[in-house]
Specification:
Number of helices: 6
Mean pLDDT: 86
Number of strands: 5
Structural class: alpha+beta
Order of helices and strands: HHEHEEHHEEH
Helix content: 40-55%
Strand content: 15-25%
Distance between the termini: 55 Å
Low-confidence stretches: 1-24
Shape: globular
């Protein structure tokens, strides 16, 4: 009789311990569509922008254009970029595990470096704008901002996530 009670109790105990495993919560990730709106509104000099975020259809495929990171490491992301061939871009990656934050920042820096090379070759007049690019982190986010008013966009980001 004790065995019949003890085995289910042990199972529940193990299940409870597994549920308590420490992993970062994605519930603390802000609403990316709202963040995207706030960031775009922070710079009134932006050209017409196309926007994508992780809540959209085909999000994983779209993410592959900005990063080679394993998408399983991503809690959510947003990216907005000029539809007119200008250099402006705003990208935010939220990682599931803070241990992956440096990898996300490196991916964004690599993306920026690739864009610099591409624009220097195909749109030299726009290439100078890429020198305004900044990559920074604020856990659990890695951020890339390439805009004339990058500091205002960064301030808007920090105000939104705080």
């Amino acid at each position: 009789m004790k065995t019949k009670i003890l085995i289910p109790l042990l199972f529940l105990l193990v299940l409870g311990l597994c549920a308590c495993e420490s992993s970062p919560s994605t519930s603390s990730i802000v609403d990316m569509a709202q963040l995207q709106t706030a960031l775009l509104e922070a710079d009134d000099t932006l050209p017409e922008m196309n926007s994508v975020h992780g809540g959209m259809e085909d999000a994983e495929h779209s993410f592959s254009y900005i990063s080679t990171m394993d998408y399983d490491k991503i809690a959510n992301y947003l990216t907005s970029f000029s539809v007119t061939g200008k250099a402006e871009e705003i990208t935010v990656i939220a990682v599931k595990d803070p241990a992956d934050l440096d990898e996300a920042a490196k991916a964004l820096q690599d993306h920026l470096d690739y864009r610099k090379k591409l624009f220097r070759q195909y749109a030299p007049a726009e290439a100078k704008r890429l020198d305004l690019g900044q990559v920074f982190t604020k856990s659990p986010y890695a951020v890339l901002i390439i805009t004339e008013k990058g500091d205002a966009v960064r301030d808007a980001f920090e105000a939104f996530v705080d």
